[in-house]
Write a structure and sequence with these properties.
Blueprint: H1 2-17, H2 24-31, E1 37-42, H3 56-64, E2 65-74, H4 80-94, E3 100-106, E4 111-119, E5 122-132, E6 136-147, H5 149-160
Antiparallel strand pairs: 1-2, 2-6, 3-4, 4-5, 5-6
InterPro entries: DUF4252
Protein name: DUF4252 domain-containing protein
Signal peptide: 1-19
Length: 179
């Protein structure tokens, strides 16, 4: 009889730990195979930098960066209604108190929001959400370990001086029509 209670306890703990609450991670997994979406995972190697030329601050920032996940919804004449539904889903997820908004700019139809998860000195994830009524939207998750806002600023300088390997970003080229 004790075994049954023990098994029931373990099962209830397991089920309680499984959150049905929507998250960006779940959203990314669900949409990866959807034809309206383009998913790209980017590793730090995309920067293709000579680490010996980095300042100590830049090295520390680079160490805190683990990977970047990009999910983009490509808008076309056939999926306007789906665009509105998906855009609302992402906005609802980002309204969760777990995502702390740093800044946003733009208008109602076009704009960018930058949020983070974690504490100011121990950021686990930066989220950039950009939307355009002409091309669609993209959600970028920058994942790391003990990141902070200074690391992001230092990473920007690393990116500017990098010899970026753009092959990892090729799937996103279809988002931007050639003119």
């Amino acid at each position: 009889m004790k075994k049954i209670y023990f098994i029931a306890l373990i099962c209830s703990l397991f089920l309680a730990s499984c959150s049905s609450e929507p998250s960006l991670q779940k959203y990314f997994v669900e949409k990866t195979e959807n034809k309206n979406f383009i998913a790209v995972d980017v590793s730090p190697e995309i920067l293709n930098i000579e680490k010996t030329k980095l300042t100590p601050e830049q090295s520390e920032a680079l160490k805190s960066f683990e990977k970047m996940n990009i999910l983009a919804f490509k808008l076309d004449s056939t999926n306007n209604a789906q665009y509105d539904i998906e855009k609302a889903k992402v906005s609802a997820i980002l309204k969760n108190e777990k995502y702390q908004k740093l800044m946003s700019f733009g208008s109602g139809k076009d704009g960018v929001t930058i949020s983070f998860v974690g504490e100011e000195e121990n950021i686990e994830e930066f989220v950039v959400y950009a939307k355009s009524k002409e091309t669609g939207f993209a959600v970028v998750r920058i994942l790391g370990d003990k990141m902070n806002s200074t690391h992001i600023m230092n990473m920007l300088s690393v990116i500017q001086n990098s010899n970026m390997d753009l092959d990892q970003l090729k799937p996103l080229q279809s988002m931007f029509p050639k003119k």
